[in-house]
Design goal:
The complex is a heterodimer of chains A (about 110) and B (about 120). Chain A is mainly beta. Chain A is about 0% helix and about 45% strand. In chain A, about 35% of the residues are buried. Classes of the chains: A mainly beta (about 110), B mainly beta (about 120).
Chain lengths: ~110, ~120
């Protein structure tokens, strides 16, 4: 039970921004929201995480709703190398990241 | 490069056999996690170790076992292999378990094929 809900797939054009949504309506106050991505034939790669405030790093931005029941991973300019499966995960007490099916991002040239 | 090393990259073996998968965590990380990824099941958590001790168990079969050694490397042992055990096996490490703000760092996996 991943306890998050994501669309199965999304498509984008190269150089355009991508907003990947995630619903985590049962999140508790101490749960962090993590995003990982998995490129073909590779292990999952950490992207970003946050608790309450929006976060930015060199890979992406994370926008967290005020009620924390949803979040959005933002890739500011998609490239072909961003084509991957993106996983949204909540981590809490036991901190055993549970992966759902994620969102498969297709980037068109 | 995540800093997590898994060997071997590929393993082909027959049903009924036993194999050992090895993982070296990122330098400084004390916790190791094992995951199985098959086409129909997605990424499934198997087991977690912290500083040599088993900390959490997931959907790990009784035919599978793991351990973490004093140098913090870990091994996953799979025995009496069945065709359905064919999958990618990932190891991940983190600095400390139980801290929700710690990222997991994954290796590139061992692809096991059981024929």
């Amino acid at each position: 039970d991943a306890k998050t809900t994501q669309p199965n797939s999304m498509e984008s054009n190269e150089e355009e921004p991508v907003h990947l949504p995630c619903n985590h309506s049962t999140i508790s106050g101490t749960d962090y929201i993590h995003w990982y991505r998995q490129l073909p034939s590779q292990g999952p790669e950490y992207v970003i995480h946050g608790l309450t405030s929006n976060v930015n790093n060199r890979m992406a931005s994370l926008a967290i709703a005020e009620d924390r029941k949803s979040s959005t991973l933002i890739l500011h300019r998609a490239t072909l190398r961003d084509a991957a499966v993106y996983y949204c995960i909540r981590t809490g007490g036991s901190y055993i990241p549970t992966f759902g099916r994620g969102t498969s991002l297709i980037v068109h040239p | 490069d995540s800093g997590v090393t898994q060997t071997p990259k590929h393993l082909i073996t027959a049903t009924g056999q036993r194999v050992t998968l090895r993982c070296s965590p990122r330098s400084g990380d004390l916790s190791v996690y094992w995951y199985q990824q098959s086409l129909d099941q997605g990424l499934q958590f198997l087991i977690q170790y912290y500083n040599g001790e088993e900390r959490a168990k997931g959907n790990i079969l009784e035919r599978f076992s793991a351990q973490q050694f004093p140098d913090l490397h870990s091994e996953l042992n799979l025995s009496s292999l069945e065709l359905g055990d064919s999958a990618l096996y990932f190891c991940a490490s983190s600095a400390h378990p139980g801290q929700g703000n710690r990222a997991l760092h994954f290796g590139n996996g061992t692809r096991l094929t059981v024929t």
